[in-house]
Write a structure and sequence with these properties.
six-stranded mixed beta sheet; 2 domains; binds zinc ion; single chain; Urease, subunit C, domain 1; hydrolase; TIM Barrel; about 475 residues; alpha/beta; about 20% strand; Isoxanthopterin deaminase
């Protein structure tokens, strides 16, 4: 079985309490309708569909159906670095220096695999069906194998997967965190050779692709000399690959950019060919109005990571203003070493709340948050057949089980997973027409063995 090919099993999802489409505004709610899935696609959505001979029927009576979450920015290796004491009260810069960077060289392929499996399992059980991982465990004398194993594990879990191939091209003496890694950065040629290899082996540019490769240097100004940014952009566009990186996560970053280059960060990347509908940035917490206008005008997108930004004390990204300006907005958990949760349900709940706390009750709606976390994510990744529930779209969807005490008393169950947040159980999850969560469990996963591997991994990564 090739896990990237769609399942040809026909599935009928009957009688859900509510179905959300992933679209914004008046198009968000599909009401009480049944859904038929065949050959990896949604075949029909209508009330009272009749089961076909040989069809699997899922009774969704106590469930609401959402499009699967599209998590557009993760660092899966960080799943073995949650709540490291030396970083728990630190800001971004000190946290980078204390938590991930000193351990980069200690990540063997085995540890990277355990971390990825832990993260993928948690994501699936929170309703994620597509993940883009910003993977930067690369250095001159390391192995490129860790990128390959992410594709292998995503295929084993049945997750739609985008590898954002990160890494540094300078030793970043400017950055107090990276300078502690004692790692030698790759050369541009090494990075590009691996990107071309990954593209040839895994990349599928189709609208319902299960595997994509993205060019994603870790952070402009810190992880590569400015003159290499246009070269990477040219290479990415020549290969037909999208581009991703961190930007404007903290005021310190903005100040650095201003002092060093005399420009705001978005102006700086614009000058180096890094804006466009094929580019999206993680964070964008600190933006001037002129930068939002430039991003919107160019079609550049954002991975909004509100929990990580709050956890590190970085601020609250102006996601509602970015959306209002027309930017593609997506949601992401970021690495769980600065989140402590890899749940997109938790992220959506916090995203719904935090903008209302800061800017008033009109700042966000549940429908808009679902749109950001599903169709918005698919848009920044260029996966046009993903993120919305409609006939012809990829069959990526989640059945949240609301048959639990904490959901008794709800007048509107459609909003319950986002409004109430975790814990909420995913009863079934389907990716590409294939059932990847069955009755709250991941078929074929030895959970106890994975948890033992995780405990061992933490022991190996202790200070
Ligand atoms: Zn990140």
């Amino acid at each position: 079985m090739n896990p990237t090919t769609p399942s040809n099993q026909s599935i009928l999802i009957r009688n859900p309490a509510a179905v959300m489409s992933g679209r914004p505004g008046d198009q968000a709610r599909l009401g009480q309708v049944d859904l038929r899935i065949a050959n990896g696609r949604i075949e029909s959505i209508a009330p009272n569909l009749t089961p076909l001979a040989g069809e699997r029927v899922i009774d969704a009576r106590d469930c609401v159906v959402y499009p699967g979450w599209v998590n557009t920015h993760h660092h899966l290796f960080q799943n073995l670095l949650k709540a490291v004491p030396s970083g728990i009260n630190a800001d971004l810069q000190d946290w980078l220096a204390a938590v991930p960077y000193p351990r980069l060289a200690r990540f063997t392929p085995e540890l990277a695999r355990t971390a990825a499996r832990l993260g993928m399992a948690e994501m699936l059980l929170s309703g994620v069906t597509t993940c883009a991982d910003h993977h930067y465990l690369y250095h001159a004398h390391g192995t490129v194998e860790t990128g390959d194993l992410l594709f292998e594990e995503a295929a084993a879990f049945g997750l739609r997967f985008v590898l954002c191939r990160g890494g540094a091209l300078q030793s970043a003496g400017d950055h107090p965190g990276f300078s502690k890694t004692v790692l030698h950065p790759e050369t541009l040629d090494q990075m590009l050779a691996d990107i071309e290899r990954l593209k040839a082996r895994y990349h599928d540019s189709s609208a319902a692709s299960m595997r994509r490769v993205v060019v994603a240097p870790t952070t402009p100004t810190f992880s590569l000399p400015p003159e290499l940014l246009p070269e990477l952009a040219r290479a990415a566009r020549g290969l037909g690959l999208r581009m991703h990186t961190h930007l404007s996560e903290t005021t310190r970053y903005v100040d650095f950019c201003r002092e060093r280059f005399g420009k705001l960060p978005v102006e700086f990347v614009a000058d180096h060919g890094w804006l466009g509908p094929d580019v999206w940035f993680a964070h964008l917490v600190h933006l001037e109005a002129s930068e939002i206008a430039m991003l919107a005008e160019s079609g550049s997108g954002v991975s909004h990571c509100p929990v990580s930004n709050a956890r590190l004390g970085s601020g609250i990204a102006p996601a509602p203003r970015m959306a209002a300006a027309g930017m593609p907005v997506s949601l992401a958990v970021d690495g769980v070493a600065s989140n402590e949760s890899g749940s997109m349900t938790h992220e959506a709940n916090f995203a719904w709340l935090v903008h209302r706390a800061a800017h008033g009750a009109a700042a966000t709606t549940v429908e808009e948050i679902i749109h950001w976390g599903t169709a918005g994510g698919a848009r920044v990744l260029g996966l046009d057949a993903v993120g919305t529930l409609a006939p012809g779209q990829a069959a990526d969807l989640v059945l949240y089980d609301l048959n639990a005490l904490r959901f008794d008393g709800f007048h509107d169950l459609a909003v319950a997973p986002v409004a109430a947040g975790e814990p909420v159980r995913v009863r079934h999850s389907i990716v590409n027409g294939r059932v990847v969560v069955e009755n709250g469990e991941i078929p074929g996963l030895d959970l106890e063995a994975l948890r033992r591997d995780a405990a061992q991994g933490v022991r190996e990564l202790l200070d």
